[in-house]
Each structure stands twice: as C-alpha cells, then as structure tokens.
Design goal:
The protein has one domain. It has about 325 residues and is an all-alpha fold. Helix content is about 70%, strand content about 0%. Helix 6 packs across helix 7. The longest helix is centred in the N-terminal third of the chain and has 33 residues.
Length: about 325
C-alpha cells in the first residue's frame, strides 16, 4: 500500500472520532450545567483544554465556546472542521473505501453545511450533538461491513484507537487538573456530578454501574476508564487495539515490535497491563495521565515518520498533525 492511501485512511478515522468526541463532551457539559451550576472557571474552560486550546480569546461562556467548538472553521478541532477534513481525506481514497461509506460521509458533509443543521443546533442542541455522534458510528459500521479488512482497514483502526484513547485520558485528566474539588466538595452532589459527567462523556455510565454496582465514583472511575480491559473506550483497551492494528500492518507473525511505532505502543501497553490504580494514585494521577497523553502523541509522530513522511508532503492530515500535536500535548 502506498503511504498516501494509508495516511488518508488513518486521518479520516481520527477526524471522525474527533468530531464524535467533541459533540459528546459538549452535550454532556450542557446537560450537567442544567442541574449543577458551577463556578465560571469550571463550566466551559475544561472543554477547551480537552481539545488542546489554551489561547481562546474572550470570555469562555456557554454559547461562545459551543459555537467555537462546533462551527468555527479556523478551529481545527471544531466539529465542522473535523467533518470537512474527514470528507476530504475520504475523497482522496474513494478507490479504497466502499461507495456506501463515501456516500454516507458525503451526505453528512453536505448536511452540516445546510441551514437545516444550523436550525437543529439552534432549536434542539441535544439532538444536534446526538446526530453528530451518530455520524462516526454510522460510518464506522458501514465501513466495517463493506470495506476490505486489509491494510487500509488496519490504518483506519489504528487512527481511531489512538484518537479515542487519547481523548479518554484527556477527559479524565480534566477532573484532576481543572475540576479538582476542594476538601469540602468531596462527596457532595457537585463532586458526584463531575464523575457522572466524565463517565457519560466516555459512554461509560451504564457499563460502569453494571460492572461495579454500588461502587462510589471517584478513584474507581479512574480505574475503570484507564485499565478496564473490556470497555471499548478505556485507555488500555484502545491502546491494545492500536497495537493489534500496528502488528497487522507490518504483518508481524510473532507479535514482536519490529519498528518504532510498535516499540512505543508495546512499551505503553505493557506498562498499562502491569501497573495498578493504587500505584498511579501514589505517583499522581494527573502526572500519569499527562505522561500517557505525551506518549500517545509520540506514537503518532512515530507513525508519521515511519509510514507517511517521504519528504514533507503537505496534505490535509499532515498539516493538522504539525499544527495540533505540539499544542495538545502541553
């Protein structure tokens, strides 16, 4: 497979996953604030931090942040920018993805440019975000059932799993880095609401309570979202799947690291398989999550060097990687 095709598959899946994650946290945050009025610094600034935006201009109130994270074409992490970029990457590999997947993605690309999308955003914000979430889910389902599960599919999986694992680590880190309650808030409804919001942002609320009935939120949520081996949005699960995709790409028969991305992924997965939440808490959850995020970005850079860069090609995916990777790893 030529690197151009692999790169477009990889970035198409990352952008689709990014659009879903952005819609997910915007919807959950909006719902949370209806029930629990929080201090201004705890309301919308965390969503900017999750997306790696540290230079937002103006007051980060609800409407301005939602508009910026949804409609701003100058924001490479906005929903509309992510869908546009996913569609552009897909357009360049129409010979690889199925016509069903292309037609559906192109339909959503045209829909989000239409007055109907803006009307839905204006009058039914929750349904708008739900529809954005379904875009990635529908495209992935169509692709899984109609696309050849060869190298192109493996790069699709690799991008999706890296993006998802990194977003889960970021969402969890915000609780400690920005929303860490004071001593008198621990165990209060506001503290509980924060944990519920984190679980809902990762679609883990139901699964968490089914697997751990009666468990109080807190460190058990961190344990679940980092280490659970079966939950598809946990950091450990995502990186295990990313490693499997990397091995499939290089056709490693014995599943032994043979290149830089595989070595970095194997090292991180091995560490996640061995460490326990008690050790993480002792060393500092924020510090541990920051390290995980930085290591995921290093894996992305290694993938870029190993598979995509033969000189500095300036396609859409590469340009975003160069402008965003440094900022979001701070």
């Amino acid at each position: 497979m030529i690197s151009r095709v692999a790169e477009h598959c990889y970035w198409m899946s990352r952008y689709l996953e990014r659009a879903e994650n952005t819609a997910r946290v915007l919807e959950v945050n909006q719902t949370l604030l209806l029930d629990f009025p929080l201090p201004m610094e705890q309301q919308w600034t965390p969503l900017l931090i999750i997306s790696g935006i540290h230079d937002y201009e103006g007051e980060p109130d609800g409407e301005s942040v939602q508009k910026y994270m949804t409609w701003d074409l100058d924001n490479p992490s906005s929903i509309i920018s992510s869908i546009n970029a996913a569609r552009e990457n897909a357009r360049n590999i129409r010979e690889v993805i199925s016509s069903d997947a292309w037609e559906r993605l192109n339909y959503y690309y045209l829909w989000i440019q239409s007055p109907g999308a803006m009307d839905l955003y204006t009058f039914n914000r929750s349904e708008f975000y739900n529809r954005i979430k379904r875009i990635n889910q529908v495209i992935y389902g169509i692709s899984e059932g109609t696309m050849s599960h060869a190298e192109a599919w493996d790069f699709y999986q690799l991008g999706k799993c890296l993006e998802r694992g990194c977003q889960t680590a970021r969402i969890l880190d915000v609780k400690y880095h920005v929303l860490l309650p004071t001593t008198d808030q621990i165990g209060t409804p506001i503290d509980y609401a924060h944990w519920v919001a984190i679980l809902m942002s990762c679609s883990g609320y139901e699964t968490f309570h089914k697997q751990r009935p009666g468990t109080d939120p807190g460190i058990s949520v961190a344990d679940f979202l980092i280490f659970d081996s079966m939950f598809p949005r946990s950091v450990r699960f995502c990186l295990n799947k990313a490693l499997q995709a990397a091995y499939a790409i290089s056709d490693q028969p014995h599943r032994r690291p043979g290149n830089e991305p595989e070595r970095l992924l194997d090292s991180l997965v091995t560490w996640l398989n061995l460490i326990r939440i008690e050790e993480v808490v002792q060393s500092g959850l924020h510090e541990t999550l920051t390290d995980v995020i930085d290591r995921i970005h290093a894996i992305g850079e290694a993938i870029h060097r190993s598979y995509f860069t033969m000189g500095m090609r300036q396609n859409l995916g590469v340009k975003f990687f160069e402008t965003a990777s440094g900022g979001v790893s701070e």
